[in-house]
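Issue: copy button drops trailing tokens. Both records pasted manually instead:
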Amino acid sequence: LGEQGRVPVLLLKLNDPVPKRKPVIVFLHSSYKCKEWLRPLLEAYASRGYICVAIDSRYHGERASSETTYIDALKSAWRNGDTMPFIFDTVWDLIKLGDHLSEREDVDPCRIGITGESLGGMHAWFAAFVDTRYSVIVPIIGVQGFRWAIDNNKWQARANSIKPLFEEARIDLGKSEIDTEVVEKVWEKIAPGLDSQFDAPHSLRLIAPRPLLLLNG
């Protein structure tokens, strides 16, 4: 599992005089944030009777040793293909989180919802289509058509969120600027299938018939 094998978890709930199984909300943070950033939202949901959970995604929060840990991991994935730090490795953590939550005596395993913002929205989306235990899914500004963005030259916003990675790829590919070819090659290396079989038009349908709300703006 390596240094990223331990998953830091923040779990909030009310203390009930009579123990009972409760629904769960898993809330996932955006790029360069951490689970504690979500604490006000977790407290609000917990006050309404939910068990609320957040984790640090790979190379964030307690799993980061410096401010550049996440970008360094992305660059390593581009150069060496040794990890999948953008989406897939955190999705694996969310599958293991599903294992833990389903085994807890205070959790209703049929009512585990998942949401997240931006990068966290992508993690929620991908976790939900591979793990049916996530019964309600609400990605926030996290779902997009990666192939559509490439084909229509609309990839800039997502690429700019991790721009140092794309700058490194640009240099490696001998380009004077980040262009569609650079973006396509980066996605192929750090998240294979992101703009093909795992893209939104193909993967979102796998969530059905579970409730799904996509929030973009």
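Record 2 (pasted manually too):
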Amino acid sequence: MQPQHNISGQVEKLDLRNLSGYDTYEGTALEGKGSLTLSFTNLTHLLFLDLSGNLFEALVVNPFVKLDSLGTLNLNLNKFKGSIPDALANLTSLQQLDLSANGLGGPIPDIFVKMTSLHTLNLGSNINLVGGLPKSLGGLCQLKTLDLSENSMSGGISEFVDVLSRCANTSLEVLYLQNNNLTGPLPDSLGHLKSLTNIKLGGNKMHVHIPMSLGRLSRLEELEINGSSLCDPQKSLSVSLSSRRLPSPWFSMSAPTGFLLSPD
């Protein structure tokens, strides 16, 4: 059952504790302003919560929030500011979390490692998110999609990739890190993430030498490295991936041997 809500005005607190019989709530028509307070204490059957596309400016999560069954939380396209709330770690059943296109800032906290069912994490387009890529995210062996694009993150990606590559079975398919301030090399361990289909690293400050291990990525369909400093791209790419022909328009960088290139 899906309750229909069309609420507008100065919504400062959204408390749905009386909807404990519902398994789905969609609130995209709230047009609320001010704070969104997740203080649910008895919505143990709620599976899907979508509050995207509103004007909420603050995200407050009650540390005693009880959403034992919540699998999908979509809060993108709001105006949240401040840091990512630590209390989100209590949502241990989450499979999909979307906080993209907000104004969240500070470093990414080490809270997501507690979400052992999480397979999609989108924190993209939060220009005030800074700091390095937490290696704790590498402990999410079941993660399929990680989008941290369009932020202001810095540092390298080696620690994260190294930790993730040690998983007995890695599931990561989509890795979007483009348009940050990332530096450093591409680690050889990237080639151990054999489920990867899409990699975007363009628009960073990385000094990229394409590791030969990328030749192991038999499922790779999209590779974007434009905007980074490439070390001998002709040699490194032809050695590792010359037998692969990534379909246009899915490959983007300066022309190496053996690739179809996307049009500018």
